[in-house]
Fold these 2 entries.
Entry 1:
Amino acid sequence: MTHLSPITVFFFILSFFICNSAITQSAIHGVNAIHHPILAYDGMVATQHHEASKVGIEILKKGGNAIDAAVAVGFSLAVVLPRAGNLGGGGFMLVHLAEEEKTIALNYREIAPFKSKQDMYLDKNGEVDVDLFNQSYHSVGVPGSVAGLIGALEDYGTLTLEEVIAPAIRLAKEGFVITHDLEKILIKYENRLRKCPNASKIFYPSPNTFYKMGDLLIQKDLAWSLEQISREGKEAFYKGAIAKKLVADMKNNGGLINKKDLKKYQVTKVKPILGTYRDYEIQSMPPPSSGGVHLIQILNILEDYDLKNMGHNTAECIHHMVEAMRLAYADRSKHLGDPAFVEVPAQGIISKEYAKLLRNKINADVANKSEDILAGEPKDFESEETTHFSVADNKGNVVSNTYTLNFSFGSGYVAKGTGILLNNEMGDFAAKPGAIDAYGLVGGKANAVEAGKRPLSSMTPTIVLKDGKPYLITGSPGGSRIITTVLQTILNTIDHGMNVSDASHAIRIHHQWYPDVLFHEAALNADTKNLLKNKGHNLEVRAAMGSTQSIMIVDGIFLGASDPRRPDAKCIGF
Ligand code: GLY
C-alpha cells in the first residue's frame, strides 16, 4: 500500500471539506437564492401545522427514529389540522430505511365497503347524484389511517404506540390554540360541518357563533378515541370500542360500512414505483395512486428537453411541461385504477420508450388541443384538501407521507361519540365511466366502483435519491394538482438549480388534459402569459396550488422548507 505523508493526508481532508461545503453552499443558495431553507444537523420535520411539527421533533429528540416521529405527526395532525389530518381517512407512506438501503410503500388507502355497487351513485336518469357521491354517508370509504400509522410503527418504529400517540392525546384533551387560518376555514366550511350535530358540537361554540383565533379547541371525544387506540392498538378502531360506535353511526345514518368491512381492512406493503430523471432516482407511490406513475411519466417526457436553458417559468419551458402533463392526464383517465382489481400498465406508462413516442406528439411552437388527444368533457375543479409531511432522522431514515379525508373535513360527518371525521373518499371513484369527478378529472372503467376496491388517488409522496441516498423528500395536497406540484418542486431543484425553499415558493402552473386550460398562480409574468396564449394555450388564474412539505439532504445536512401557501405550516429542525 502506498504510504501517504501526514501533509498529504491533511490536504486530502481539507479538500474534502472544502469540496463538500461547496456542495452544501450551492444547495443552500441555489443559483440565486431569495428564500433560505431551514438548516439542521440532527433531524427535521416539515408539516402543515406547527404543533404537529413540534411533536415530530419531540419524538426525534426522545431518541425515536423518523418512523416514530412520522406516526406521532400523523396522529397529531388528526387533532390540530382537522380538515385533512385524520383517523377517518387514508393515505400512502414511503419509508426509507438507511441500514437496509431500501424503501417500502405502505398503501393505507380507504376501501369501498362490501355493500358497494358500480351504479350506486346514479339517479333514475342514469346521471351521477353529486351529493350522494361526494357528501353523504355513502361517500365514506373504510378508513385506513389508523391501520397504516400503527402498521408503520410496528414494522419500522422503535418506540411504543403509547409514546408516539401521547402528544396527540394531550393536544385533543388540553386543546390547542386556534389560528387565523383555522378560524377562517371553520367559517368557510360551516355548511359542511353544521349539517352534522356531532361535528357542529366540536367545531362551533354554539349554533350561531364561531371560534376566534386564540381560542382553545378541545376535542374530548377524539381524545377518548386516541386513548382507546393507545391502549388496544388498531383493534380498538377495527374491532373494539371505536368500531362499535362507527358501525352504530353508519346504521343510524344509512351508511354502508359494517362490522365485517372494518374487521377485514388490511394495509398493503408494496415496492415504490421507480424511475430516473437525469442523475437522480425517483421513488414514489404506485397504483392505486396515479401520482408516482404520472410523475415519472412526465419527467421521462421532459428529460429530453433542456429545461435549464429554456429558463424557469419561461413560455417555452411551461409549454413543454404543459404538453407533457396533458398527455399524462389523458392516460390517467383511461388506464389507472386499483391494481388489485384491474390491469394497470404502469411499467409501460413509465418506460423511456413510451416517453419517446409521446414526445413526438409535442410541437415546440403550438399547443395541442385536448380533444385531439382523447375524448372527454370539460368541467371545473372543486375544493380539495389533503396533507403531506416529511420527516428525516440522523441515521438516514426518511418518511414521505400523504394522507387525506378527500375534501376539507371529508364528508363533514363525525361518527357519534368518537370525534372522528369521516372521509368522502368514495368520490375519488369514477361514479360513471367517462364522467368527471370533483377535481374535473375524467374517470375511466378502470376506476369504477367495486366492493373491496380502492379508489384512484393523485397523492404523490416522493423520495428523490442521489447516489443511492435520499436527496429530496417531498409531497403535497391539491387533488389533481398534487402530481404537477411535486413535479415542479423536482424540476425547480434539479433543472433550475433552486434551493428547496425557492423551489417551494416559485409560481406554479397546472394542466390536466381536461378541462383544456392552463391554470397558473396569479403572479405569473404577463409576458410569459402572452407568449403562451400565442402558442394556443387557454390560460386561467387559480388560487394558490399545493402545500409542499420538503426536506433536502446534502452532505448529511438537512435543508427544509414548508410551503408558504399555508400559514400554519412549519418546518423545524434541530
Ligand atoms: N382525495 C384526493 C386524492 O386521493 O388524490
Note: Residues 44-269+387-447 form one domain.
Entry 2:
Amino acid sequence: MKLWLIGAYGIVSTTAMAGAKAIEKGLADKTGLVTALPFFKPLEEIVPFEFDFGGHEIRLLSNAFVALKEHWEKNRHVDLELIEAVKEELSSIVAKKGTALNCGSGIEGLGKLETLEKEGLSLKEIVARISKDMKEFANDETVVVNVASTEPIPKINERYHYTIEGFEEMIEEDKKDFATASMLYAYSAIKLRLPYANFTPSIGSSIPALKKLAEEKNVPHAGNDGKTGETLVKTTLAPMFAYRNLVVEGWMSYNILGDYDGKVLSAKENKESKIVSKDKVLEKALGYAPYSITEIDFFPSLVDNKTAFDFVHFKGFLGKLMKFYFIWDAIDAIVASPLVLDLARLLLFAKKNEIGGVVKELAFFFKNPMDCDVVNTHEQFEILKKWFNQLARA
Ligand code: NAD
C-alpha cells in the first residue's frame, strides 16, 4: 500500500517509515503494531505489510533520511544500525511543499519554513497544488495520515464549515481567515477518494462539511489525536475505578516533553487543542467530571522522551480518601509510529469493504474519537475486534 504523510519529516513520520522498511527487510519485528496481533491475521492477505511513502512538509529538507538522522541526533530513539540499514529507501522519499495556513505561532520555532501561501497562492491554488501532489503519488491503495504539528483550534463558521457548498465557496472566494491547513489536506484527500486519518488534535476532517463530503464520496476517515501515552493509561485505568464503584474526586495529569512537538505545544494557542483533546476523556470514562488538571509543558532536555505524572485522589468504602500515582515514561515516536501504520492498513481495509464516512470503530486509536463517546480502552478494543471480524469473515 501507499501512505501519504502530512508532516512527512516529523519524528513520528520518519520513525514509521524507518520501522516499516526495517520490518519489510526482516531487520525488526512487529512489536507495538496492533494489526500484528494474531487476531488480525486475516489482514495480511487483504492489506499486506508493504509500504511506499510520500508526503507534504513545510521544513523542506532534502529527504526523509536527512530528517530521520536529524531526529536521531537529538533523540537516539532507534539504533543507528537500523537507520543506516534503511538509508537508501528513506533517501528516496522527498516531501512536497505544503501549506501552514493558520497553524499558529507554535510552528515558527520549527526553523526555516517554506509554504505554498508564501508563494502568494490563493486557497483555490493551494488546494490544486496539494491535490496534484497527492494524485501524482496515489493509486487505488493509498491512505493519507495527518501527522503534522498541532494547529490551534479554529472558530467554526456556519457559512463555510457546515456544508460542502459553503466549504467550496470559502475556497473559491479565497477566504483564508476561515481555512486551516489540516482542513485543506483533509478536503483534498477525501475529494480524491483517499481514506484519511487525523493522528493530531487539529480539526482535519471533523468539520461537518468534510464529514458530509466523506459520506457523499464514500471515503472512510477517522480521528482525532493518537492515543499513545498518558491518555491511553488514563482511559485504561479510569474504568477500573468505575467497575469497583470507587469515586474519583480528582485527577491531575502533568506532561513534560521536548523536541519539535513540545516546542509547538508550548505556544498557548497550539497547546489548547491538545489539552481539550486530553481533558474530555475522564468525564466520558467515569460518567461524571472529577476535579481535573491537565498540563503540558516544554522541557527541552527530554527531547522526544515524554514523561507524564498522574495523581488520582479517590474515595472508597466508608468515605475514605485514598491516593494512586503513576509515571509514564515513554519515547513518543516509538509508541505513536506503529499506530500510524496500523491506521493506514485498517483504513484501506475499510475502503476495500466499501465503508465510507467516520469509522467510529477505530476509536481505539484516538484520544478524542470522532462521533464516538466510548473512551474506555477495553470497550474500544472489543468494538474494533468485532468490526474487523465481521468484515474479514464477510
Ligand atoms: P514533529 O514536530 O516531530 O513533526 C511534525 C512535522 O510536521 C514537522 O516536520 C513539521 O515541519 C511538519 N509540519 C508542521 N506543520 C505542517 C503543515 N501544516 N504541513 C505539513 N507539514 C507540517 O512532531 P511529532 O512528534 O512527529 O508529532 C506529530 C503530530 O502527531 C503532532 O501533532 C502530535 O501532537 C501528534 N501526536 C503525537 C503523538 C505521539 O505520541 N508522538 C500522539 C498523538 C498525537
Note: The first strand starts at residue 2 and ends at 6.
